Amino acid sequence: MKTNVMDILKERGFIKQLVYEEELYERLGKESVPFYVGFDPTADSLHIGHFVALMGMRHMQQAGHKPIILLGGGTAMIGDPSGRTDMRSMMTKETIDNNIECFRKQISRFLDFSGENAAIMVNNADWLLNLNYVDFLRDIGAHFSVNRMLTAECFKTRLERGLSFLEFNYMLMQAYDFLVLFQKYGCRLQCGGDDQWSNILAGADLIRRKEQEAAYAMTFQLLLTSEGIKMGKTVKGALWLDEIKTTPYEFYQYFRNVDDNDVETCMRLLTFIPLEEINKLTSCYMEKDGVRHYDKAINIAKVKLAFEVTKIVHGEEKAQEAETLSQGAFGDGEEMPTQIIPKGINSLVEIMLEIKVAKSKGEARRLIDGAGVKIDNVTVTNSDAVVLDEDLQKGVVISKGKKTRIKVMI
What we know:
45% of the residues lie in helices and 14% in strands. By secondary structure, it is of the alpha/beta class.
């Protein structure tokens, strides 16, 4: 008997909230269900948070359900207030269009756009930008209670600081997206990050009220550390899926160095490694007072995790290159990540800024003063240290802590 995809998603830890669970479970078990996830193009690359949703979509497509990727060319003109303490910066249409093209190229690598349940990609600008506002209010706005909207989590956090009427419209627009996709493609389910719960629920409710038809809402877990903090922050900022913004090596190293307690979660959400194998790889711990204490064998799991995630995002060749560079920097390999800097930068502090292992001169000096920086495995204690051109021509290895080693040359 074919496994219901909801069981797969639950076992791997994807599902956070859903509505009409029994009804949805039955439908997913007996028919192909068109479903959608929306991506507002607020940057020119997706990041690791988006990747959780893409992996959820892949599991669903592999189980026979039809993915619809909605690119928010229209909603991005307004800006989603969810999870925000202030209003998003307004983007020009040209910026949004450019970001959408970047999203198109990236998403096309992760889903199958051919075959019986081929994925499709749509842009809500096609129906939102030419709406007649009065008609929209009469047709859609009549189904929304302002009192109920104000209790939604996405608005509650903003009421004290001020919620613009512009942003207040966002929930209606997202709900309308679901209605349009239901009418055009028979879409029955919207999925997304758990911070989108209020908006997703509003869309399912609109279809049930207006069309008297079944519609469902399901949210995925956000990628959080065991301490409840969002994962994916690096020295450079977000952990991007674009290899120019975050190189495959940096991407690999992020997961190679993930906290011991987060390895299992990352494996379940970000790879296709079977659960039985994940359990074996991450069972190397002793529990004391409710706290897991992992032994060194967890590093085998980290290497596996880093390789598998990098392979899915950047391809097997790039993953192998990243693994080789990592072994060169931290193991027995010969290759290591190398950065070329302009001639004339000799101050260690300036070099650290140039190769982006510190965000500021003050941070670089604090790292050096705290004995956290080495040149060719020798700890540097003088923050005024310089590196000679003749040494830089041969190449020196600069280490920051235990996790960053870079060969620097001119």
